[in-house]
Amino acid sequence: MNRDQIEGGFRNLKGRGRTALGAVAGRARPQVEGAYEQVAGVAQAAYGRTRERAEDLYEDGYRLADEVASRGRHLRDEAVERGRHLHDEARTRGRHLHDEAHRRGRALAVRAEENRGTTLALVAATAFGLGWLLSRRR
After folding, report:
1. Vertex 35, ends 31 and 40: CA angle to 5°?
2. What is the pTM of this model?
């Protein structure tokens, strides 16, 4: 409860009292002034409630913004961690594939070395076939 709500409530009560005294005394002016004070008091109290609600909304918005920022930082940290994990996994797989290709290449080179005649015939046949295919396109 803020100052405007309290003062508005007192002003409303004061106006009611004035209106009642004016009615008892039979005087119109105190009644009108009392009615004015009542309306002004109600308006001031309503302003106080509205101001309090606006302050509450501001605080809620501030807390919400803090929470959003905190969640954003958490998501960023999680994304960084997942990125690191994916990088490490890709690096491990890449090393494995590199090692496997290197091993198979060496095995193929050994096989080609052991079978020189067959390798020479395959290379010659491949070169002849490619030459024949390329010359037929022109």
Report:
1. 145
2. 0.53
